[in-house]
Every structure is written in structure tokens, then in C-alpha cells.
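Format notes (please read before filing issues)

Several people have asked whether sequences and C-alpha cells are stored in separate files. They are not. Every record keeps both together, in the order shown below: the sequence lines, then the C-alpha cell lines. Line labels are part of the format and must not be stripped during preprocessing.
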Amino acid sequence: EIWMVLISDGDDWILWDPNAEICHRNYNIVLAVKSASSLNRKTIERSGLMRMSGLKLVQIEREGNIISNISEDFVILSKDHLYFTGVIDAILALTQLDGLTLLEDEVFFFV
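Then the structure lines:
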């Protein structure tokens, strides 16, 4: 059985093979919360972001301030930047959530 998945951000295409070794590495992504997002004004607990398998919410940036020690009662607001690390299938699932937008210009490295 052969699987081939093409992923696009609108400009570039990525070929993703779920059987490849690369799928087991962690990747980083930064997403911004839109004002119409269902996550807006929800706590981390209610959002379910901490329970997503293969994914870790590393930090949140709000108005230039970095919050690294994120508690479950932390309230997500629009314009927050959410920094995640995780395996590729979890990252792909995250990008499907309504009201989050990929920040392509944001680069971060998590060790």
C-alpha cells in the first residue's frame, strides 16, 4: 500500500509520506488566534489543546510578552500566537482547527 499526501499553504507544496522516517520527528509551528475563532476566550483546558496526542503547546505570545508556564486556566484571546511542537500528523490536525492562521514569517526553535 502506498500513501502520498500533498500539503499546500497556498504557495508551496510539500510531499508527505506517512511511512517515512521523517514523520517521527518533531516540527514547530506558530499559529495566530483569529477574532472569530472558537478558541477565543476559552481556557486552555476547555480548548483541548493540551490533550491533543503528539502535540505540545510550548508557549504563547500575547502583545509581545512570552508566556512559557501555561496553566490550564489560562484564557486564550484573539491575536495570541500559539507555539507548538509535535509530530507531523498532529501538526496537520492542528492546522485544520477553525480560527487559527499559520504565521509563516514566525520561526522558532525548541530544544
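For reference, the curators noted about this record: Residues 70 and 80 are 13 Å apart (CA to CA). DSSP finds two helices and seven strands in the chain.
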